Known about the structure:
The complex is a heterodimer of chains A (117) and B (110).
Chain A: E1 4-7, E2 10-13, E3 19-25, E4 31-37, E5 43-49, E6 56-57, E7 64-68, E8 74-78, E9 87-94, E10 107-108, E11 112-116
Parallel strand pairs in A: 2-11
Antiparallel strand pairs in A: 1-3, 3-8, 4-5, 4-9, 5-6, 7-8, 9-10, 9-11
Chain B: E1 9-13, E2 18-23, E3 31-38, E4 45-50, E5 55-56, E6 61-64, E7 70-75, E8 84-92, E9 104-109
Parallel strand pairs in B: 1-9
Antiparallel strand pairs in B: 2-7, 3-4, 3-8, 5-6, 6-7, 8-9
Amino acid sequence: NAGVTQTPKFQVLKTGQSMTLQCAQDMNHNSMYWYRQDPGMGLRLIYYSASEGTTDKGEVPNGYNVSRLNKREFSLRLESAAPSQTSVYFCASSESVYGQGANNEQFFGPGTRLTVL
Amino acid sequence: DAKTTQPNSMESNEEEPVHLPCNHSTISGTDYIHWYRQLPSQGPEYVIHGLTSNVNNRMASLAIAEDRKSSTLILHRATLRDAAVYYCILRAYTGNQFYFGTGTSLTVIP
């Protein structure tokens, strides 16, 4: 049971290059999320997918696109990378059960450290 | 979205209790209070959550003010492994989105 896995762990891009960050979870969770964390800051939500087939913008979606490929996988794409997108990217998933006492605990992956030169 | 305010940093001696405060004066009646922590070079992990009543689990306790405008995470005996950034987060009752602030960086002194 691997939990949430992310690839790659590290990546260096030049300005204008594109890349896709991959995320997969094996917990049969409904919801998945992409966050970015800049140095000394908290996490900010980029996009999320409440359930398979749906995606929605978070706080900082500009410059990114996402695809919920199936229930397990949620990818994040940078079409034209910029230095401002240098950050650590975390993927997370949650069961998303609603109602009294629902935890909706989010499980996080180990992160991808991206540098854009 | 409701926001939270936490001190930037705190220190504690090993094996002593730690009280980490959080203010959330704009909390709505149906917002849950969650606490997560982030160890160095790792993703955040769940600590505890609550709605109105105080909560205990094996990791910590959560004390929620009667007016719900503030809460306190209590680590009963700090260990070196508790050194981390602690985030206080509000989540809407019917939502699953978290909005992280900058958190409190806890240093545990041996």
